[in-house]
Each structure stands twice: as structure tokens, then as C-alpha cells.
Fold this sequence. Notes:
33% helix; 7 strands; 7-stranded mixed sheet; 17% strand
Amino acid sequence: MAIMFLMDGPEHAKFTLLLAHGAGAAMDSAAMTAMAKILAESGFRVARFEFDYMASRRTSVGRKPPPRADKLKPEFVAAIDALDVKGPLIIGGKSMGGRVASMVSDELYASRRISALLCLGYPFHPPGKPDQLRTQHLAEIRTPTLIVQGTRDEFGSREEVRSYDLSKSIDILWLEDGDHDLKPRKSVSGFSAADHLRTLGKAVASWADKIVS
């Protein structure tokens, strides 16, 4: 299946972001669209794409379940090839999309095909199964990485993640009371979803400038 991209942001931006979706929501879901828009407003050229199983849901083939994350690695690399970026490229995605990107990042970083990795709500473990960690490769990852995580994310809260063995190449931006879509409960946190999105945009732009410089 041909790879289709959703593009946001200035065509000649300093950085391009290639983002994949989560396991159950498409590239044009409300959460991904909001994140892509704020990152584009922060100066990035943002490209979103879908893995084949998700793209097939838009056709008569119907609904396919997501395969195991490691089975999607070749598709992520194929998307990088198809996008054919000339300048600095940061890969990543929402939840499972960021996890798949993290699995292919080190080889691409070593060959200078990418500059960094951005994970938006990393799925450290399945909800309700804190012992089934998805962190083994994160202990040794060498790619400069930013994980943006809500403090009450059911896939890995701040209290849980503090105990994990993570590489020093990883920075984590915690968004107070954010869920897996980074959304806070305003009545509890005092922050709105728009507040957290603005923080996301500014933080990612600052981090990218620091990494590449």
C-alpha cells in the first residue's frame, strides 16, 4: 500500500518531524491533529503517516487489528525512505508509533539518517499491567530522545517511570495531570489541554535546537 502523508507546517522548516499514530487511533485523530498543529505552529514541518493495518481501515478491506510493534519496524523505515527529507529529521509518534520509532532509531541515528526521537505518550506498559514493561531497549538507547508524558498516564505514570532504568540520552517532559493524550483535568490541575499543547510546542522546539546545535 502506498504511503500517504498528512503535512503541516512551513515547507522549508529547519526540522522535519515524521510521526506515526497509536495502536487504535488514526493519524488524523483529534489528539494527533492537535499535536501536529501545535508543532507546526512552533516551526516544524510535520509529516504524519499510517501503518498498513490502519490505512486499510479506510478501504473495503475493513478493520484489521494492530500487529506486534516490532513487526511494524520495516514500515517506519519505508516511510522515512518515502518522505526523503534533506534536512534534519526527527522521528517519533503517538504511543505505539513512538515505540516503533524508538525500536529503529539507533541504527538510523548512527547512520545519520535521523537527528533525534520524539515520543508523545510512551506506552511503558499496557494499562493495568505495570509488570509488562516495554523499556528494555530504552536503557541503552543512544539517540537523543524526548518523551512527553502526562503524570497520570495509565501507560506509565510519573511515579512508575521514576523507577525505570532509562538511558541518559532520554529527557522526559512531564505534563501535570495529563492522561495518555496529554490532557489534564482542569478542575484538578489548573491547566487546560491548550496550556499543555503550548508547553509541548515550546519545549520540543527548544529541545530540537539544543540537540542539533
